[in-house]
Design brief:
Blueprint lengths: L4 E5 L4 H10 L4 E8 L5 H15 L4 E5 L2 H5 L29 H16 L3 E4 L3 H4 L7 H13 L8 E3 L7 H10 L22 H13 L15
Parallel strand pairs: 1-2, 1-4, 2-3, 4-5
Helix pairs in contact: 1-7, 7-8
């Protein structure tokens, strides 16, 4: 039986890599990647292609979103805002939040999905990772799916699937190992492209996940603090 088509929004990070592994079990995949002038744009794109090659996925779409750097307001896209040292106890929206980024990404995925006949969009959003990111909450994706299906052709019915949204980073690491996902090809650092800094929020969350899982993180770090 021919598999249904699904699009995976693959940033090249840990969460989207494991999400790709999960989606690959049941769907014929197409991979989407957004360049949005983030500090590690080239490194993330490299991971995107290497993960795609690992799974032998030929159908790929890369879209540039230069407007995020013009809008600013995020330490990932505005060089005037410093990437802060990790604060894993923070309960507020951090300045690494890119305003409404996931809505922009999902909109492009839905448009492409309608053209290629996709039945689902997978995105590796994680509540723990959000640190208060409003566009990483389950209710956001539920609402977006409803909106997307109201705004597309009557025969279009695309599900938005977030398989790791309630996972801890430890659970994501363990799931990745279980599925033989290429975790060594992923990149999570917010500010460096050669050696991960080890001290930004994204590095800290990732390192803590590997440390709690009892597994050595396979990528290179400038410094590797103990976060547990």
């Amino acid at each position: 039986m021919k598999k249904k088509v699904a699009i995976v929004s693959l940033s090249g990070g840990l969460d989207s890599c494991v999400t790709t592994s999960i989606a690959n079990q049941e769907f014929d995949l197409a991979l989407f990647h957004a360049n949005y002038k983030q500090r590690t744009e080239k490194r993330e794109l490299k991971s995107f292609h290497e993960i795609g090659d690992y799974y032998g996925i030929e159908k790929r779409l890369i879209i540039d979103f230069p407007h995020f750097s013009k809008i600013g307001g995020s330490s990932l896209t505005d060089r005037k805002i410093t990437v802060k040292k990790a604060d894993l106890s923070n309960k507020f929206v951090p300045d690494s939040y890119v305003p409404f980024r996931n809505a922009n990404i999902l909109s492009a995925c839905i448009s492409w999905g309608e053209v290629i006949g996709a039945s689902a969009i997978f995105i590796g959003a994680v509540c723990e990772d959000s640190s208060g990111y409003p566009d990483c909450r389950p209710e956001f994706f539920t609402a977006f799916e409803k909106m997307a299906n109201l705004g597309t052709r009557p025969e279009t019915n695309i599900k938005i699937i977030t398989p790791v949204i309630n996972f801890s980073k430890k659970e994501i690491v363990l799931k990745g190992k279980e599925l033989d996902a290429p975790l060594h090809l992923t990149w999570s650092c917010y500010q460096n492209e050669v050696e991960a800094c080890g001290i930004c929020d994204s590095c800290a969350l990732r390192l803590r996940g590997f440390q709690l899982a009892g597994i050595e993180d396979p990528i290179n770090y400038k410094t590797k603090p103990n976060y547990i």
